[in-house]
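Example protein
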Amino acid sequence: MPVPGNPMRNFLGRHHQGLMLVALVLVSLVIISRQLQDSQGQTYFAKSVIAVMSPFQAGVTGAVGGVAGLWDEYLSIRGVKKENRKLREEVNSLRTEIQGLKEDLYRFGRLEEFGAYVSETDLRGIAARVIGESPDPWTRTIVVNRGHKDGVKTGSPVVMPEGLVGRVIEVSGRSSVVRLIVDRSSRVPVLVSRSRARAILEGENSGNCQLKYLQRTEDIQEGDVIITSGLADIFPRGVEVGTVAQVIRKDYGLYQYARIVPHVPMSRLEDVLILEHQSSLKDEDGTP
């Protein structure tokens, strides 16, 4: 008798013989399909399994293919990024090398100018590089990378092809301190190149200098070139110093004054020439 409240068990109890028969038929078909082959030698059972599994296999294959594609794309992107990083490093290295070559060419050009200047003026000097400057706003000095081991002596004049720079005031083994002509304590005996009027050039601690002790009756004009006079045996004679920018003549007094703009840009010094000895330069008329 069927058990109340359990429909599945009641169903199996009523139809168990029929279900057994169906199961036997299915098993028989499976056995037969595993033995029967088509014209290509493939069993019908295998074909059935393939037919049933094909949609699932296609899905799995697509998913695997998609994952593989993403992985390949990821590896490709990583490779491109790595290559880009390598190229950027090479570009930066080349830029650094090019900048170094530019600096070498610039220094080579300056040394050529120094060589030509020495040849034209019959002066001998030691090329030096500026490695420091005074942090004190009340003094205008620079430090160069040449000292007494290189033949530099205290008091040596410092020049450039453009004109006078200053004078060595301190010397150590491999470096020296140079007082610039724009320093307030600098004093240089000079001449007005056109009129040969004598004066003293003093620094203003700015970028300019001034002429002092210039007789009121002397001829001086804006645009006149100022050169070293060679007096006091400090600086060679005839080195250009600067150009007159302004003449100041008061209504009284024995002297007149002038503001001078140096020919050498003191705020942008990189390489200078320290003279080994003093020697007169030729004047404009060719006489020593």
